[in-house]
Amino acid sequence: MLSRFFTPGKRRFEELSEQEILALAISSEEDDARIYQAYADGLRDEFPDSAKVFEEMAEEENLHRKWLIDQHKKRFGDKIPLVRRNYIQGYFQRKPDWLVRPLAIEKVRKMAEEMEAQAQGFYEAAVKRVSDADTKKLLGDLALAEKGHSSLAHRLGLKHVPESVQEAEQAREHRQFILTYVQPGLAGLMDGSVSTLAPIFATAFATQDTWTTFLVGLSASVGAGISMGFTEVASDDGVISGRGSPIKRGFAAGIMTTLGGLGHALPYLIPDFWTATTIAILIVIVELWAITWIQNRYMETPWFRAIFQVVLGGALVFAAGVLIGLA
Questions:
Q1: Alpha helices by DSSP H, the chain
Q2: For the segment 51-65, what is each residue's pLDDT rounded down to a tens digit?
Q3: Which of 76, 89, 119, 276 could form a disulfide with 270 if both were Cys (CB 3.0 to 4.6 A apart)?
Q4: 284-303: string of b/e by CB count within 10 Å (b at 16+)?
Q5: What are φ and ψ of residue 27, in 5° steps?
Q6: How far is residue 159's CA from residue 96's CA, in Å, rounded to a whole number?
Q7: pLDDT tens, 156-166?
Q8: Would you state the pLDDT for residue 65?
């Protein structure tokens, strides 16, 4: 944190000349325009209305840059020194769009408003550092332009992204989240929690050896996780189905499958058989309840149907494992 303010080789804002302040403003406006245009390009396919917002914001920043360049030519000539944000101690930094992907609608809008607030603060500080009347007026006008009666992101949002469109975009984003993460993760959790019940409890009751049971549970969980992950990746590339990145889905399915099995395998690290088994059964109940809740919350499955499907399936597999173990 402190390195941001005390980095060798950086200049303090108070040490900049008026020409350097103008140069810093020019490069900052250029960077912001590029970021807004990148946001627009990244959103255009799925959220065309929001893309229009950021296209106009990029145009606005380019216009500010033109005004600043004209002022620099008037006072200092055509040669603009290279002064960028990362050369200044404590100066706010911008994250390029490729560092904030995926471009979630609300996240990008909030970032745009934060960018405006930072730019306003810069121009207000810059006004105090210049003495030329025309430069002072320009910087003051830019501070007001960044501030406005409301943020530019909000004003353009009212023009291009009315409430009904925002709701549609948010619904589309929510649906994509469900398809890419929740659905494969839920399938993995169900598979890991239910399918490992039989081998784990069969081994537990057959051997009453907690270490052996743990090793069986660990191998079953990890193996199932790897299998589910690769199956998810290979089964659908997401292009036609619109389910999103197969890699993301594969990780979601694989990780949740492994966790689902490990949940009731880990208690068998406890040496006492009945203590470990009791805790494992309690964890199974929690896992089945979590699956039921996720089905109801994200997949909109009615509570009764979700409980019936999950509890009945889990109970049958658990009973099968116990009976096999006692045979």
A1: 18-43, 48-76, 105-127, 133-147, 152-160, 163-177, 183-195, 197-207, 210-235, 246-263, 273-298, 303-326
A2: 888 888 889 889 999
A3: 276
A4: beebbebbbebbbebeebee
A5: -65, -35
A6: 26
A7: 555 555 555 55
A8: 93
